[in-house]
Amino acid sequence: MPASPRFEDTTVLVTGAAGALGSELVRGFAAEGARVAATARDLADAGVLADELGADRVLPVALDVTRAEQWAAAVATAEERFGPVGVLVNNAARLIPGTTESLTEEQLEAVIATNVFGAWHGVRAVAPSMRRRGGGSIVNVNSIAGLRAAPGLMAYSTSKWALRGLTRAAAAELAPDAIRVNAIHPGIIDTPLARDPDTGAELVPVDRHAIPRMASSAEIARYVLFLASGEAAFSTGTELVADGGFLLGPVEHAAA
Q1: CATH code for the domain of 150
Q2: What domain range is 198 assigned to?
Q3: Whole-model pTM?
Q4: Of 108, 115, 180, 201, which cross-links 159 as Cys (Cβ 3.0–4.6 Å)?
Q5: Closest by CA position to 58, among listed 42, 77, 71
Q6: Mean pLDDT, range 223-248, rounded to an integer
Q7: Which residues of 215-251 are buried (b: 16+ CB within 10 A; e: fewer)?
Q8: Number of structural domains, the chain?
Q9: What's the CA dihedral at 90, 124, 40, 58 to 10 degrees?
């Protein structure tokens, strides 16, 4: 007898659902039986996924993750339609390039508002819903920029290091409620943001990574689904790294 889908009858809320990784997450959860609240700033963007996967599986929800009141409304909408939230994926992120000296205060605040406050608002908003359900799982999408200095991405790196602290503190605080909180640190993902818009060339060369390629959004989504699922039931406060060996440093590959 085939195994039941890992997220059968589970309400999942995904932020940043209109992006490359976000849309793969929505597809992955829906394929495994979940009912997904797909959130995005623009409701029309999230609506594309409902059209693709069916309104019985995907509920488009407008959400600016920096606004606490919109979080409350999004969770209430998901509960009313599908039931208490069992999984939250804090995937929405913002990146503004700049060095310590070149960034403006407004730019730093804008990145932290999405990447740190957005995740914090999310945890706060879903925790009561998960308690009503009897437990749940939160996955914060972090980055290799939260594990290693990222010159020229000062605001982004700062926010991702802060997200590590949020993940661990929330994991400890919510453990008595059977709510797990974990994070994934992806390496370079093959999305339009990773390539020159004119030439299509990689903005960050990966030929000297231990695994000399970029990750696909689909394979990173599979890591997130694992952390969210019962297969990772013994993990909380965990940081799963999927970076193709980036943190190992340059590797000389044999000539073809």
Answers
A1: 3.40.50.720
A2: 11-248
A3: 0.94
A4: 115
A5: 77
A6: 97
A7: bebeebbebbbbbbbeebeebbbbbbbbbbbbeeeee
A8: 1
A9: 90
| Percent composition of the chain: helix, strand, coil (DSSP 3-state, to 5) | 45, 20, 40
Which residues are catalytically annotated? 156
SS3 assignment, position 75: helix
Residue 182 CA neighbour count, 13 Å, CB half? 23
Instruction: Outline where 17-153 has alpha helix (H).
Output: 20-31, 43-53, 68-82, 105-112, 118-133
Paired tokens of 185: 């640190």
Is 56 domain-assigned? yes
Task: Determine the Cα–Cα distance for residues 214 and 251; give it in Å rounded to an integer.
Answer: 15
Instruction: For residue 51, tell me if it sits in a domain.
Output: yes
Res 202: pLDDT: 74
Assess if residue 1 is contained within a domain: no
pLDDT tens figures, 75-125: 999 999 999 999 999 999 999 999 999 999 999 999 999 999 999 999 999
Does residue 1 surpass a pLDDT of 70? no
